[in-house]
Amino acid sequence: MHDIGIKRVYAPPQKADGVRVLVDRVWPRGVSKDKAAVDLWMKEIGPSTALRQWFGHKPERWEEFRTRYKAELADKTDLLDQLRGYAKQGPLTLVYSARDEERNQAVVIREVIEKGR
Predict the structure, then answer these.
(1) Structure letter (DSSP) for residue 91
(2) 96: three-class secondary structure by DSSP
(3) How many CA atoms lie within 13 A of 94 on its CB side?
(4) Which of 49, 84, 87, 106 lies 20 to 30 Å from 17, alpha-carbon distance?
(5) Is the model's pTM score more than 0.70?
(6) Residues 52-79, buried b or exposed e (16+ Cβ, 10 A)?
(7) Positive or negative, the Cα torsion across 31, 11, 8, 39?
(8) Phi first, then psi: what are they for 86, rounded to 5°?
(9) Structural domain of residue 48, as residue ranges?
(10) Which residues contact 76 (CB under 8 A, 6 or more apart)?
(11) What total number of domains does the chain contain?
(12) What residues pair up with 93 in beta bridges, in sequence order?
């Protein structure tokens, strides 16, 4: 399996990104589909609206967010398998819009995918 990258949607795409999958439930503000340059918008894999709103990207809620989000992802094995399939074929980049590059859903998704290797 190839490495799984993580990149903000606002960063310029690069050929090395491979397959770019947007993992936000809501389309990022101010970004056109051309500029986002994603191959797939997998909005169903994003955190539920209730969880996203509860988290609010507050660092003190990060560990609990990870736990709750992993529980949500347990019901999305088909989507996780699809992402694993992309990673087996070549580079995969999980694209997200949050400002926090260390605490966001793409980080959790990558953890779950890599744990399932």
Answers:
(1) -
(2) strand
(3) 30
(4) 49
(5) yes
(6) beebeeeeeebeebbebbeebbeebeeb
(7) positive
(8) -60, -45
(9) 4-115
(10) 44, 45
(11) 1
(12) 5, 20
